[in-house]
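Render this sequence as a predicted structure.
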Amino acid sequence: MSKPSIGLLIAAGIGLGGLGFVVLLVLMILLRTGSAATIEITAVYTVIPAPTSTTLPNAFQAPTATSTIDPLLNPTGIRLGEYVQVYGTGGEGLRLRTKPGTRSAVMFLAMEEEVFQVLDGPVPADGYVWWYLQAPYDKNRSGWAAADFLKIVELTPQP
């Protein structure tokens, strides 16, 4: 076998070097324009619907607050004037009704963790103890709710 000539080796080196330079130049151009690798970032957001106001039927009259509470009907410790929060519905919400009882018409669905003020009760009906609640931000969001799905809101005093 014969030895390659020095001129042939130099020519091959220059050819490979030139080819490498062209490849490097093409890569730099593609990276600079961004067409070689495009990264798309998609924003993710969660829409939380705000409670909507509901109108009361004309036949419905808001109850008047009772003056005495039977302790046997109130194992939860809920009292008139306190604020309670919907909980334990597994995200399903709580039906607030026109009257105490599971057969009463549903006024609206209160969302999990929604806060209400207690205006009347307790009233036993259909195996539940019922409280009349009203949203502090919307007087039309009111109705009777079962105590099993309410917890007292602990207010922290301001210093």
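Summary. The helical segments are 6-33. The mean pLDDT is 79.
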